[in-house]
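Pasting two entries for a bug report.
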Amino acid sequence: MDTMSKHKWLRVLRQSMPRYLTYRSQGDDSLGAKIGLAIIVAVLSFVGATAGTLVTARFETAKWERETDYTFKQALISKRIELLDRTVRIFSKRDAAKVLDVTVKTTAEISAARLRQAISKKQDLDESKSVDRMLAGRIQFDDLTAEFNSVMILDELYFGPKTGAAIKNMAKNGVIERWWELDDKVTADVEAAMYQEINP
């Protein structure tokens, strides 16, 4: 490229650029041009830093949301597995509850009969052992019933609509008050619904 075309090219370039961006080599550098250049550099630096900060903040927020969601799902799965275990255990204690129910009622009836007999014969009667047995049985039975009720409420709370419907079906038949007499099919339906809904 010859010198003449080089000067033409520089002149065209200077004319097309705004005044504050051009640098003149002939000694007519003005203070305004230098300040304008400094302002442009400062604005570009600010925009770059702000954009970097916003991108980083957005990335960190998304990462935090993913971690929180993962932690919540893991805690929910863990709680659901624990409740499934408790549900299976309480359903398997139905036979023990049946025996306790019969034992408490029978002990109470026998104690009442002995008391009536002692009153009719005007004898002293020491039924403290019988009453202690009856109370111990009643306490065990009430503990099992409380555990059953607690587990059913928590199952409805932590699981989805299938489990809730299975529990409501169990309650609809009026059997829930006498939970130890539940049919195996009803308990299997509740367990199957819970198993299907373990993953959120």
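Entry 2 (this is the one that rendered wrong in the viewer):
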Amino acid sequence: MKPGAGEPIPPLPARRLVDRIAPTQEGILRSRPVHRAEIVAVLALATDLAIGQPMQFAFRSCALGLRLADRLGKSASERREIYYQALLRYIGCNADTHVLAALFGDEMAFRRDVARADFANDAEMLRAVARAILRSRPEASWLRSVGAVLGGMARAKSVSVPVLAGHCEVAERIATRLGLGAVVARNLGQLYERWDGRGLPKGLKGDAVSPAARIVTLAQDAIVLADAFGRDEARAVIAKRSGTAYDPQVAGAYLKAGLNLHEGLDRDFEADEIVALEPGASDPLSEPEVDEAFMVVADFADMRAPWLVGHSRAVAELAEAAGAALGLPSADLAALRRAGLAHDLGEVAVPVSVWAKPGPLSTQEANATRLHPYHSQRLLAAASSVTDISELVACHHERCDGSGYHRGVRIAALPVAGRILAAAEAYRTAIEPRPYRAARSPDAAAAALAAEARAGRLDADAVKAVLTAAGHRAVAKRSLALAGLTPRELETLRHLANGLTTKQVADRLGVALKTADNHIQSVYAKIGVRTRAGAVLFAIENGIGATK
């Protein structure tokens, strides 16, 4: 999305799709059953990238958590809870990422530091905050650095409760949308709770914290600590935190088992291996369930920052409409719609602080942004049932003359659906604001796409179909009759979705701060959420945002 210079990235080895401009009769979407655990595995890998952990972190902690479950004699239903808790524990942490980036710069590096710390220990958290502040201000004087660190610690405390509560609510909501049930959703809402009651946001204590949350918290910390300091040091830290951060029974089982629990975990797992570990049998998803799962993928990618709200859904809608105008068969349209929803999943591999940078990017930053289609492709390719969609996703920044990225391929290697996706993505991105530029008008975006087609960079037929489908109505309004919201409450929700603070909402509405807060609380009550992050996800789910 953000342009940058750099050499094309070598492609992943993968089966190529249709090479002709005419749609195929059989379509490009193969009739392969999609299982819920496959989509969860893709989301787990994406979450690893988003929180700054190595890919496979969730897979490895899932395997470790299940080994602990065996040691503790957990039932099949409890093992299922542990399985999904490990894979999706941090799924809500992509919300409010722009807040962390604004406070600490590279939010991924900050999250890596925090993952090693005991967040109830002020000294350990101060060190993590200090590293983040100093990293973001390398030229600052000693005195200014000290002031920045102290200020950063104060701000971190003030935002931690609402931000972490938002992470929990988003995780619960996503679990529900994926059909994982109320118990798994509840467990995911406890990702920051602790045995000693000093966790967030509810301060649950002891057995009030679900067994899955207790086991997975220790398992994931064990992986992080072992990677950072070695297994012996990890065991020492876990022993020290037993009875505070960790359930003593869980910590005791881990320590009693010795280093054997980690054997075989220091390797790359195939997603299929993790899917096979799912406790109990699972039926393939229905087509509507697959569509909803891809909606979750889209919303996960777009909730990182206010300027992304609704982008992936809008690209998918426009691409599908353009594909229908070109007469693509229904299977191709389904693949195109799902590729549009998932195309920017790989953006989570790049810190929000880079995407938010108002000025020119460094060469390193530019090359990182150009890799996001590669990451999108790689993440989706992990699920064998959607490899065709991963190939389409790889096309969304390619150009017919070979000047695109990440593979730099030419028109002969781009299927018609891939050309449509590239044109739809270019149009939608142009009419949406970004931190480094204002939005273009629909007419200006249409003119720019037409120029790209004349220059041979975008396919002319795809551009024509996209512009016809857009109808030059990039800001078409949705129905106001949503969850009983009044027009003023809908406007309030739109402002929340675009990252405005309560004070900024008040200023936009021309009302007092207390009145704005009353509007916000009324919105929360009507749409059934508790946090700002939950409201933002609701807005994304219902197509509400500045670009709608």
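Dev reply: Rendering is fixed now. As a check, the viewer should reflect this: DSSP finds 26 helices and no strands in the chain.
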